[in-house]
Write a structure and sequence with these properties.
95 residues, mainly alpha, 0% strand, globular
């Protein structure tokens, strides 16, 4: 909890850093214009591009959700955020 208080970024190592508010806003905009939340990527994309960063952020959501389901520390993915995503039509992968 203390790490949350100081704003620790829980995004898994290797993923491009993106704050929750930014990622959520970009994901909702992507869903609205594409009709789904499967953010694509390709080797040609610049690793610092918004599309690549959003793809990595969504991948981290799926990874954190797996931990969340198992009752483990799941980074910034709280029950409220899971409900917010699901209520907006986001579907987590089942493992």
């Amino acid at each position: 909890a203390r790490m949350d208080e100081i704003g620790f970024e829980w995004t898994p190592r290797g993923y491009t850093k993106m704050k929750w508010d930014e990622g959520f806003a970009l994901l909702m905009a992507f869903g609205e214009s594409n009709g789904h939340f499967d953010v694509p990527t390709s080797p040609e994309l610049d690793r610092n591009s918004q599309e690549h960063r959003l793809h990595k952020w969504v991948e981290s959501l799926h990874d954190m959700y797996r931990s969340f389901e198992l009752g483990r520390q799941s980074g910034s993915l709280t029950n409220e955020r899971v409900q917010l995503l699901v209520s907006n039509g986001f579907v987590f992968r089942s493992y």
